[in-house]
Amino acid sequence: MTGWKMSITIHPYLSSIQQTEYQLRHDTPYGDLGQGYLWAIMEAKNYISNLENSPHGEVMQTSGDRISLGKLISDIPHAIFHVDRGIFFNLVQLCKRPADVIQDYLAGNRKSFFHPASYLVVALLCNYLVVKMIDLHFYDEAELRTMTPLAAQAIRDYDALQWWFLEHTYIYILIAIPASSIFLHLIFRLSGKRLNIAETTIVILFTIAQGVFIQTLIYLCFGWVHDGSFRRTMEMINMSILILYASIVAYRFLSTIRFKAIRPLVSLFAGIGLAVVWIASAYFLNYLLG
User: Fold this and answer.
1) How far apart are CA 163 and CA 132, in angstroms?
2) Three-class SS of residue 61?
3) What is the pLDDT of residue 87?
4) CB 191 within 8 A of CB 266
5) What's the gap between Cα 238 and its chain centre?
6) Please, are residues 111 and 57 in contact by the beta-carbon 8 Å criterion?
7) Between vectors from CA 132 to CA 139 and to CA 229, what angle results, nearest 5°?
8) For residue range 174-224, what is the model confidence (pLDDT) as tens digits?
9) Which one of 95, 137, 228, 249 has the fewest CB atoms closer than 10 angstroms to its CB?
10) pLDDT tens-digit profile of 57-89?
């Protein structure tokens, strides 16, 4: 093949390469051109195979590999029913690098990740099972006997509402996720952060899912204490941690804000706003169905 140069576009799917190889082997005479194409195809197969087996999870990215809303929606059914890898990677990395790891996912380095939609589903399921297992109530009967009837009833109503939210979680997230995505997208837009609505939804899914896992861990560690006052305090601390985590994620994404004094305030506003949106979504659903 001396003096001969060849240009070939490597198709991202190996099956296409194999099909072309078959045609060349059976339909093309073995001249220099046929041998040259066969050589290039075999090299392409080896290159793709090495990428797929790389310990660092490098994958070839095609141009325009940003997440679109259509792609996000079409990926959800597959993601929910294929929960075979990446969950512990998500759990650890979202603790170590809360926003950076999400940006890695948005940049296209997704091979090691558990899909964010699946991650949220598993997080909510774990939370539900733990709350059921420890029978988490935010009062105890001995405490209620020391209260006025009005105060005792208020605590009972609060506890009943929390259990209603738990039983209807998979309905109100259908309201909460779009609402919180729009809220955060507006903050990003006003701050000069160029993420589309689907990419913002990915940020929301990862952040909320990790927050639910944190909440579940706190319940698992301290929810066994049968003291109403302690559990209500635990719930307040839990909510504060979730707001702080969301604020940290927002802070890392809002590097586009030039004024350093404003950036933490906007990030805290984003964290509190997300919590308000989720709580408001739950109450709104309760109003619709109650």
Assistant:
1) 10
2) coil
3) 83
4) yes
5) 20
6) yes
7) 20
8) 899 999 999 999 999 999 898 999 999 999 999 999 999 999 999 999 988
9) 95
10) 444 444 456 777 777 776 666 555 554 457 888
What string of DSSP letters covers 127-154? HHHHHHHHT--S--HHHHTTS-HHHHHH
CA distance 290 to 285: 8
Q: How far apart are CA 155 and CA 148, in angstroms?
A: 11
How many residues would you count in the chain? Answer: 290
What is the C-alpha separation between 124 and 286, in angstroms, rounded? 18
In the DSSP assignment, the letter for residue 113 is: P
Q: Enumerate the domain spans of the chain.
A: 1-60, 69-289
CA dist., res. 160 & res. 262, Å (int): 40
What tokens were used for 2? Answer: 């001396």
What is the C-alpha separation between 179 and 186, in angstroms, rounded? Answer: 11
Mean pLDDT of 254-277: 93
pLDDT, mean over the chain: 80
**What angle (nearest 5°) sits at the alpha carbon of residue 107, between those of residues 216 and 87?**
30
Whole-angstrom distance, CA of residue 228 vs CA of residue 155: 9
Most confident of 33-37, 84-88, 286-290: 286-290
- Residue type at position 183: F
Dihedral (CA of 43, 49, 54, 57) sign: positive
Helix, strand or coil, per DSSP, at residue 94: helix
